[in-house]
Structures are given as structure tokens and as C-alpha cells.
């Protein structure tokens, strides 16, 4: 929390020692499953379309197997002990370009109350940094139309690779 003191002569001072800093760190699948349900629900309610066919039910076994195989990494964004966001990414070699190792973002989310600063940008940059450390040469993100992420990615030098369309069957 920020502490602001206003003196009688209307000058203000900020006690920066009380400002919560955001920490980005690696997390495990089990840590996220144990701690992130509230954020998963908020994320789902905000962006999921076709909710009657896309019922939120993470495939925990597949996520755990991916972790065992080293094909997933998760970054958590925290302020103190509080989880405020996450970036979940799969690492693989491209099926058409076998020598190309890439990271594909699966989930990126910052709780609404923590948006508006640079937390999202910091999480994206740390995701890129970790993917690079794993030998990835390409980073892929998917974004809903007209979202902050869709507007931000071109400014970060990302270009459109594909456009995904969906239709209920």
C-alpha cells in the first residue's frame, strides 16, 4: 500500500517503502491449480465466448504431463503473497518447421484491479525472456479482438501470423 502524508503547507510525501512491488516468478501447475481459481473464474467470465459449450474445466492431467515433459512454463505475477496474474505457455518445435522451437501462450491474465500500470507489459517481457532462455526463436500470442493485448502486441513488434475463426457445431 502507498502511504501519502500531506503537511499543513499542502506538500505531499509518498512513503515508497509501503508500495507493493510486482514480482514475476516461475510457478508450477499444482501451485497455480491450488491458488488461481478466483483468477481463472474472473478470466473466463471476462473473455470466454460460447460459454454453453466452452465450460471452464482445465485438463489438469494434461497440464501436469506437459510439466513433466518440460513443454510448459508458467509465470505468476504477485504483489506480496497475492497472485494477481499469470502467463501460461507451451514450448514445442513447430510441426511444419521442425527446427523451429517456439513458445505459444495459452493464457495471459492480470486481475482487473491491477491493470492500468505496467504489470501486463512486465509479464509479457518476462515471458519472452524465459522463452528465449529455453531456446525458443518465436513467441506466439493469441488475443481477442479490440482488447488491450490486441492493441499492445503490434507496438511490441508482433505481426499477425494467423486469424482464428470459430463456429459452434
In round numbers, the mean pLDDT is 91
Quickly count the domains. 1
Structural class determined from secondary elements: alpha+beta
- Count of helix runs: 5
Q: In CATH terms, what is the architecture?
A: 3-Layer(aba) Sandwich
Oligomer: single chain
Low-confidence parts lasting 5 or more residues at pLDDT below 50? none
Instruction: State the strand order across the main sheet.
Output: 3-4-5-6-7
Q: How much beta, percentage-wise?
A: 25-35%
Major beta sheet, specifics?
5 strands, mixed
What would the CATH topology be? Aminopeptidase
**How many extended strands?**
7
Topology (SSEs and partners):
Blueprint: E1 3-6, E2 12-15, E3 22-27, H1 29-35, H2 37-47, H3 60-69, E4 72-79, E5 82-93, E6 101-110, H4 119-133, E7 138-140, H5 148-155
Parallel strand pairs: 6-7
Antiparallel strand pairs: 1-2, 3-4, 4-5, 5-6
List keywords for this structure.
alpha+beta; Aminopeptidase; about 170 residues; two-stranded antiparallel ribbon; 5 helices; five-stranded mixed beta sheet; single chain
Word description of this protein:
This protein is of the alpha+beta class and 169 residues long. It has a single domain (21-155), classed as Gcn5-related N-acetyltransferase (GNAT) (Aminopeptidase, 3-Layer(aba) Sandwich), CATH 3.40.630.30. It is 30% helix and 28% strand. The chain contains five helices and seven strands, in the order E-E-E-H-H-H-E-E-E-H-E-H.
Amino acid at each position: 500500500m502507498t502511504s501519502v502524508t500531506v503537511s499543513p503547507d499542502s506538500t505531499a510525501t509518498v512513503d515508497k517503502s509501503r508500495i507493493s512491488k510486482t514480482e514475476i516468478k516461475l510457478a508450477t501447475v499444482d501451485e497455480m491449480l491450488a491458488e488461481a481459481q478466483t483468477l481463472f473464474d474472473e478470466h473466463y467470465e471476462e473473455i470466454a465466448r460460447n460459454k454453453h459449450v466452452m465450460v471452464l474445466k482445465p485438463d489438469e492431467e494434461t497440464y501436469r504431463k506437459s510439466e513433466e515433459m518440460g513443454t510448459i512454463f508458467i509465470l505468476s505475477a504477485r504483489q506480496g503473497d497475492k497472485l494477481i496474474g499469470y502467463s501460461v505457455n507451451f514450448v514445442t518445435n513447430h510441426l511444419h518447421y521442425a527446427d523451429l522451437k517456439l513458445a505459444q501462450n495459452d493464457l495471459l491474465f492480470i486481475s482487473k484491479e491491477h491493470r492500468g500500470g505496467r504489470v501486463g507489459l512486465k509479464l509479457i517481457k518476462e515471458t519472452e525472456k524465459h522463452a528465449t532462455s529455453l531456446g525458443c526463436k518465436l513467441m506466439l500470442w493469441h488475443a481477442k479482438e479490440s482488447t488491450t493485448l490486441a492493441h499492445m502486441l503490434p507496438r511490441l513488434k508482433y505481426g499477425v501470423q494467423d486469424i482464428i475463426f470459430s463456429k459452434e457445431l
